[in-house]
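Narrative summary of target 7.
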Amino acid sequence: MTISQLFNIANLFVLPFWALMILLPNWKVTRQIMSSYLPFLVLAGVYLYLFITSITPENAQALSNPQLADIAKFFADETAAATGWIHFLVMDLFVGRWIYLEGQKTGIWTIHSLALCLFAGPLGLLSYILTDWINKTFFPKFQQTETVIVGEKAAS
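Modeled conformation, tokenized:
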């Protein structure tokens, strides 16, 4: 399998998880799937393979004391770029999963934060943090009520 094929497969692999969290957040199957670490094991395995194949003695030396020019040169290699992209996929999905699970636990609406996290991970995290702060600051009673309702739905 080529690096390009692994890259494409990894991109497609994460989409069903994002779709479930964004489009069907309260579905029992979504909750079960997103409570699993299996997607991360698969992606981390691909990342490990690409990481090992992209590291050369020169790259290892450059990465041990990173300078911007060295990092740019490292990512000019197709395997290294795919490795970096898989890193983004894994971490963005992990953060998205955390946002999703927190939203399920607290009753906070997270669709906007998840969509942002899908396209720009740190912005999705910032969005969730701000949304959580706004809810806690301006709607504390609503959040407690929602948490109880979500918890009751999950139990049934």
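The mean pLDDT is 90.
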